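Module 6 notes. Inverse folding takes a fixed backbone as the condition and produces residue identities as the prediction. Think of it as a translation problem where the source language is geometry and the target language is the twenty amino acids. Below is one complete input and output pair. Work through it position by position during the lab.
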């Protein structure tokens, strides 16, 4: 049974969705698969980085006291490439040619760089005075054994993966990427490139939503374009439940006569139908499919392309991030300057999310401007948006005024 649809604030819709989306269990994954995933446990260093004192330059390992007064001539007694263990010590009046990353030989307490020397046969002239410990990267200089390098809950970026590799880790326990199925619905939609017949339009939401899923660091699963037909919808949704951790549908959740997604989801899922006090993207559905032992959240997004985009950003993305263990599930918000302002509106009791382009201005602040037409069918004007300006009902943003902006992309120059 569908719950009664009353208009609810966005925060209430978000709370309902998040309440239904449990964090997926962590599992070991190969480092190469872990980018953007969240660490289950703190990462503790089983080894030091670097593991031994080594040279930070190509040069000569020597006793600093021997090269305190320069120029001085020292006998070159050995050569040490990176990766070879030292086979002899540096004695008084001696030097060992050493490459970046090679272990400091016993007896040496400094390295002078090759640029400050001249080699003549087996004798090197050091032109710049050595300082004790100069040119040496001590063991544990980056990470000491036993250090907590990353806390539980860290979202792994490229350099985190590099550090874990430096510590000898091949795998790491993370909340894995979720498989998120995306299906489009609507008999008017054409997806195969065929000429449009009267009344038909091209399907556009699926590629966009699959890309948004990928951008959220989940695995997009294409469940196809499904006809407004009961059997086809049930089959596609059941396939999705079997194969995915979450599902996203677009279209068919509003008040139209052929909004069959609604009928079918109500039959096979535990659904909440919502009217959210936002524009675009007022109609929205959330529910759980599958058995209680493995519930699969389903996000029913409205069909208008801009509504699908905004609905994904505000309601689906935070939930997917929560399921993938992220501590920070929201897009960042900045307080920005609106040189052109935004038209004052009142009377619809909705918060509007205007698609804007945010950029750093010469005054050092983020400035935002509308990307153009703001209709929920006008995706082209939204394509260049990297922000959603938050415009509560009745709020006036005069030219040069300030506005909160949810950043859905990186801020450019
Ligand atoms: P609906 O929510 O199914 O009533 O659809 C609302 C509007 O969005 C209609 O104009 C649909 O044709 C359009 N629409 C629905 N799904 C898609 C889609 N996948 N691609 C492009 N337009 C769509
Ligand atoms: Mg439809």
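Target side of the pair, the amino acids:
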């Amino acid at each position: 049974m569908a719950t009664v649809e009353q208009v609810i604030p966005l925060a209430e819709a978000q709370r309902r969705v998040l309440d239904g989306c449990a964090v997926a269990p962590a599992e070991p994954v190969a480092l190469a698969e872990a980018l953007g995933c969240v660490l289950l446990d703190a990462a503790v260093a089983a080894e030091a980085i670097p593991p031994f004192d080594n040279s930070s330059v190509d040069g000569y390992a020597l006793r600093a006291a021997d090269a305190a007064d320069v120029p001085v001539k020292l006998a070159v007694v050995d050569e040490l490439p990176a990766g070879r263990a030292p086979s002899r010590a540096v004695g008084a009046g001696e030097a060992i040619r050493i490459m970046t990353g090679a272990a400091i030989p016993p007896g040496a307490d400094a390295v002078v760089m090759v640029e400050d020397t001249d080699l003549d046969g087996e004798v090197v002239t050091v032109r710049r005075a050595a300082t004790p410990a100069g040119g040496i990267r001590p063991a544990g200089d980056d990470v000491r054994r036993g250090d907590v390098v990353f806390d539980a809950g860290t979202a792994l970026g490229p350099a985190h993966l590099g550090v874990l590799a430096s510590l000898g880790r091949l795998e790491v326990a993370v909340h894995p990427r979720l498989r998120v199925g995306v299906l489009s619905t609507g008999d008017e939609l054409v997806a195969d490139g065929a000429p449009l017949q009267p009344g038909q339009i091209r399907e556009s939401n699926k590629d966009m939503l699959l890309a948004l899923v990928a951008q959220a660091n989940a695995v997009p699963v294409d469940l196809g374009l499904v006809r407004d037909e009961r059997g086809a919808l049930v089959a596609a949704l059941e396939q999705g439940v079997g194969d995915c951790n979450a599902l996203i549908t677009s279209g068919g959740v509003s008040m139209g006569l052929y909004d069959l997604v609604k009928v079918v989801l109500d039959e096979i899922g535990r659904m909440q139908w919502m009217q959210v006090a936002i524009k675009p993207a007022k109609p929205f559905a959330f529910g759980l499919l599958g058995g209680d032992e493995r519930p699969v959240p389903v996000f029913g997004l409205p069909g208008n392309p801009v509504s699908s985009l905004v609905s994904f950003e505000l309601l689906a993305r935070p939930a997917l991030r929560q399921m993938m263990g992220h501590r920070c599930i929201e897009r960042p918000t900045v307080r920005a300057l609106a040189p052109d302002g935004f038209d004052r509106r009142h009377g619809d009791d909705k918060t509007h999310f205007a698609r804007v382009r945010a950029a750093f201005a010469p005054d050092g602040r983020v400035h935002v401007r509308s990307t153009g037409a703001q209709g929920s069918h006008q995706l082209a004007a939204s394509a260049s948006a990297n922000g959603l300006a938050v415009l509560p009902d009745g709020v006036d943003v005069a030219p040069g005024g300030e506005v909160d902006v949810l950043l859905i992309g990186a801020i450019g120059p």
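Reference fact for the lab report: The first helix runs from residue 10 to 19.
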